[in-house]
TrEMBL record:
Residues 74-280 form the ABC transporter domain. The lineage of its organism: Bacteria, Pseudomonadati, Thermodesulfobacteriota, Desulfobacteria, Desulfobacterales. GO terms for cellular component: ATP-binding cassette (ABC) transporter complex. Keywords: ATP-binding, Membrane, Nucleotide-binding, Transmembrane, Transmembrane helix, Transport. This is ATP-binding cassette transporter. It comes from Candidatus Magnetoglobus multicellularis str. Araruama. The keyword Transmembrane applies. It holds the Pfam family ABC_tran. The keyword Zinc-finger does not apply. InterPro entries: AAA+_ATPase, ABC_transporter-like_ATP-bd, ECF_ABC_transporter_ATP-bd, P-loop_NTPase.
Length: 280
């Protein structure tokens, strides 16, 4: 009788344990396909990373550069970009846009959220292919995808690498001077051709991205609300010191901004609302 009682107790404990283990076991079994898929994806990424190492960065950059060393005007000629919905039906459309950007000028782009400002910048810099219309550099009709080497851009959704890619030589003193200028020298060090960390606040990450952008020394700079996450000191520095300095160097600068207190800095201002361009 006592033996039967103990057997009963053991059965109850085993059943209780199985009940508590049932849900976690099902979760583990359900996760197996995702784990397997993740392993396959990781293998492909590692393979892709290894393949990058087989190429000379200078050759890749040179492949895009067909010899446009300078320009007078970039002209957007009835440029249109049409987003597609999930079922491939036409959705939001930006344009048609016609705009002249002169070499060495500061262009400010403002407008409501979702109006097409970032889309305009990505069309100009060759990251998006227009659905219709043309882009001219001086008197030559071009595909801006072939001229991305002209641009250095910091978009609002930028990714920050700890290494500087695409630069033939890197002046350590210049990097350290820029780190100090951007107020990052106490948090970030330039060591072994890498930034010691990118684990920073949003404003600090943008300033580190600015350092990388300045070191690229391209002809055209594109900044998508760069000053939005800066304190008043760095916001003022951006508009009143950095942008005029780049202009003095002959750079062309396109900035998305809502900081109306600094609108006077721009040589040209346009507004985008609902995908349509308004000159100001």
């Amino acid at each position: 009788m006592l033996s039967s009682y103990f057997q009963y107790i053991i059965i109850i404990k085993v059943l209780t344990m199985l009940i508590f283990m049932w849900t976690p076991t099902l979760s583990i079994l359900a996760a197996i396909p995702y784990i397997s898929g993740g392993q396959d994806a990781l293998k492909k990424l590692l393979s892709l990373t290894e393949s990058f190492g087989e190429y000379d960065e200078s050759q890749l950059i040179g492949f895009c550069n067909d010899g446009i060393d300078s320009f007078d005007t970039i002209y957007l000629d009835n440029l249109t970009y049409q987003y597609q919905s999930v079922n491939q039906t036409p959705a939001f459309t930006v344009g048609p846009l016609s705009l002249k950007i002169h070499s060495g000028e500061i262009l400010f782009v403002s407008g409501g959220n979702g109006g097409g400002k970032t889309t305009l910048l990505k069309l100009i810099s060759g990251l998006y292919q227009p659905s219709a219309g043309n882009i001219w550099i001086d008197k030559k009709k071009v595909n801006m995808t072939d001229h991305r080497y002209l641009f250095s851009a910091i978009f609002s959704d930028f990714y920050l690498f700890d290494k500087l890619y695409g630069l033939d030589t890197i002046d350590t003193q210049q990097v350290n001077a820029l780190l100090k200028l951007m107020g990052l020298d106490k948090k970030v060090k330039w060591e072994n051709d890498h930034f010691s960390t990118t684990d920073l606040s949003t404003g600090q990450r943008k300033r580190l991205a600015m350092i990388a952008s300045l070191l690229e020394n391209r002809q055209i700079y594109v900044f998508d609300e760069w000053a939005a996450d800066q304190d008043s000191t760095f916001r003022q520095y951006f508009y009143e010191s950095l942008l005029p300095s780049l202009k003095e160097q002959g750079k062309t600068i396109v900035v998305i901004t809502h900081d109306d207190a600094f609108f006077h800095i721009a040589d040209q201002r346009v507004r985008l609302n609902y995908g349509q361009l308004e000159n100001i």
